[in-house]
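Hi everyone,

Forwarding the result from last night's run.
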Amino acid sequence: MLTLASLIVLYPMLWVVSLAFSGQQSLTLVRLPEDAGIARQLMALVPLPEQWSLANFRAVLSEQPFLQWLGNSLVVAIATTVVGLSLSCTAAYAFSRFRFAGRQRGMLLFLISQMFPAMLMLIPLYVIVVQWLGLGNSWLGLILVYSITALPFCVWMLKGYFDTLPYEIEESALLDGASHWTIFTRIILPLARPAIAVTGLFAFMTAWNEFILASIFMDDESLYTVPVGLRFFVSDYASEWGYFAAGSILVSLPVMLLFLSLQRFLVSGLAAGAVKG
């Protein structure tokens, strides 16, 4: 069963890789003769190009504004990560360590917000960001939307990790005259690096892979993120599947590198963040 599940997952990825390195734009990678036998037809189900080429990658990087879209995505994703982590770290620490009116209700509202599809927030977000704040077609508006979207999950993850840290460490620091801000920045945050790595990766991927909100809030082609830009390769007026596949592979590389660099934090961060608080 595990082998079958792996094949089901890997088969679409094999199609993407084959299209990207085929050097063509058609989905037909293998052309069978009319008298092809059953064995030949079954072999054609494995999508391997007749000739391997880097033409699609060269065209995407040189003939299309892909690098500009990639830069836009990096700006939005990094800013979303910084803003999301700044807000979620402080909020999660407050929910974990302090007792104040509305604490339980606040955490419950964060949890409830994760139970509904993100599309339910589309119209309210559009009204607030575009009509009230006038931040439509701008990176600032998109960063604000992504940060708000990622905030509930990040707060819950970080709060669960902060709850596992012994309070005796903070009591000792308070007796030595340290302020709550000093304790938070110099003791809690260094100890919470695994959880911060997990939530930071989640916030980055939220902004990096998102398509629908970016396509609605962005009208200027020079401000498009990569997911929005890639849609123009395959539309009613174009069917450039090779470019689309090559761009999909290129856009996945930053996330893969980030995941590999944070891999040593992920297991401990996810496990500790899932502890019931």
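Residues 273-277 have pLDDT under 50 and may be disordered.

Cheers,
N.
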